[in-house]
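ok trying this again, last paste got cut off
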Amino acid sequence: NIKFGDWYVDDEYNIKAYPKDSTYCRDMLAVDIWRSFVHADGYDGLPVPASVKAGTVGGMNSALATARWGCDGWLGWLTLNGVDFGFVSWNNRFNKRLYAIDDTNPKHCLAKIMSLDWTNPDISAFDFKVPKSIDWTQPANADLKTAWMAPLNYLRDLAAGNAEWADIGKYWDVRTLRDYLILTELSLNNDGLVKNGGLRMYDDGIMY
């Protein structure tokens, strides 16, 4: 277990290189901007339901104290066996601790978007970190699957004119969705809407 800076302790990290931006600065800067969005309204404004903020210690729930709200990266230079590979980003992992997800809570979900068609969303488009290795074909998982797909199906229906804007708060945390779309435009992170983005759900059944 290794700790870097103010990151949480972990035993696995990612090294990334991006062909269109060898410094990876776009992604690291975007995460910093996103974190400023998240903390703009203080503790009460953190993008989690009240149930996650309960049981605070010293004014801050311990899970929220270490939440980073996105994958951090440090710029570095990679040399392996005497061969220079150039600039890379040393990143923490996309996992439950980034978003104060409780993997013992059956209603908490965290997934990475792998290849999502928003006009025809499917559960197979996600790599679930919580719950992990879940079989969605099993009847016991049907309710959780329905809860996860409901916000995605709502946006599909909304785009097709078959749903009402007034209902968006029943499915999505509106502030988080709004801010993420703003950040996507600001950072030209268009691929983040169909792959590499992350979605999560807590006890309230709302998508964040």
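PB: full thing came through this time. The two ends are 29 Å apart (CA to CA).
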